[in-house]
Design a protein that fits this description.
The protein is 73% helix and 0% strand. It is mostly helical. The longest helix is centred in the middle third of the chain and has 26 residues.
Length: 349
């Protein structure tokens, strides 16, 4: 089936174009030289090549198609499942380098696809590639999807069964896995109904993942190591005391709590410690979340203003103390102090 609608072409190809840019960035230009980022780049690259082949086939007349491009596109599909599997495994296991057996695994796949490509080139064996080998490729992809689901089983249990809050990095891994499942299903449907659905699905999930990434305040954590369980590395009491003292001094001197854009990463940089360590300090040694910790300073500041500055409106006091809205100021103040801001101020008028 061939299409020529320019809008449809744009929708199908925009994900492929940006996919190539993303893959090039993570493979060659990423500042974080991590195994995980390399494997993620390879995953996006192989997906982009496969989807690009589909776009090419859909919008190019059959008699004008370059059959080598068709062969390369199908061959790339052979590596999607294995790239996803090892990306998830490397992320969960915090791998610092690629094990030799992983390289061998990729090497075996490369030898298989090169041998078949040379012995049975697409230009002479189109029926073999389209009717037999293509099905084998999708079976391999499906097997690795199942293996990937098993690899992230604990993340799935944590989110759906135990209903436990997951970190941004963990949610990202789940999102990447689900995106691959959707693309795989779309191609299965396309084999029997509408081939176009695979390319459109890729564009949708690509920008869905981009939106997920941009919507997270701590998105820097996505392409950093998932932290080890805090229980395995407790901060020593003496060190924790010094860090708490330093943190309190920082908050009072720089008044970071007044900036609504202050993130855990910003404060960690000021303290010259990792975000993981600051989060651990807050949870284990102070017993508060980062938001609750900031709210304590905001409340103290607002109480001070309510006592001393009777010219400011209550709303202005809330903003001056670091709250982003009047409603959040009233809600947090009432919860912490037990009185509304107006009731608290009234006793000093």
């Amino acid at each position: 089936m061939q299409f020529s609608n320019p809008i449809l072409f744009f929708i199908c190809s925009v994900g492929v174009f940006n996919g190539f840019l993303v893959s090039l960035y993570f493979v060659f230009f990423s500042k974080q030289k991590r195994v995980q980022n390399l494997l993620f780049g390879l995953l996006v690259f192989f997906l982009s090549v496969r989807i690009g082949k589909s776009v090419y086939a859909i919008f190019t007349p059959r008699e004008e198609r370059n059959l080598l491009i068709m062969q390369i596109g199908l061959s790339a599909c052979f590596f999607i499942g294995i790239s996803l599997f090892y990306y998830l495994r490397a992320s969960i296991q915090n791998r610092k380098k690629i094990p030799q057996k992983w390289n061998i695994h990729f090497g075996v796949f490369a030898v298989i696809i090169l041998t078949i490509g040379i012995a049975y080139p697409y230009v002479y064996y189109r029926s073999f590639w389209n009717n037999y080998f293509a099905y084998s490729i999708y079976i391999v992809w499906g097997i690795y999807l199942v293996a990937s689901a098993f690899e992230i089983r604990n993340l799935l249990k944590k989110l759906f069964i135990r209903n436990t809050k997951s970190s941004t990095a963990e949610l990202w891994l789940l999102a990447v896995f689900c995106a691959n499942v959707l693309i795989f299903i779309a191609y299965l449907i396309g084999m029997f109904y509408l081939y176009l659905i695979g390319t459109i699905t890729f564009s949708i999930v690509f920008y869905g993942l981009l939106f997920f990434f941009l919507s997270k305040n701590n998105r820097e954590m996505i392409f950093q190591d998932i932290p080890e369980k805090y229980a395995a590395k407790k901060i020593e009491k003496k060190e924790a005391g010094l860090l708490i003292e330093k943190l309190d001094k920082l908050m009072k001197e720089k008044e970071l709590f007044k900036n609504t854009n202050t993130k855990l990463l910003n404060v960690a940089k000021e303290l010259q410690i990792t975000p993981h360590k600051l989060s651990q300090l807050l949870n284990d040694n102070i017993g508060k979340s980062f938001a609750a910790f900031l709210n304590d300073y905001k409340i103290e500041e607002s109480k001070k203003l309510l006592k001393e500055n009777h010219k400011l409106t209550l709303e202005a006091i809330g903003f001056e103390s670091g709250f982003s809205s009047k409603s959040s100021f009233y809600a947090v103040f009432k919860k912490v102090v037990g009185k509304t801001p107006a009731q608290y101020q009234k006793q000093f008028l």
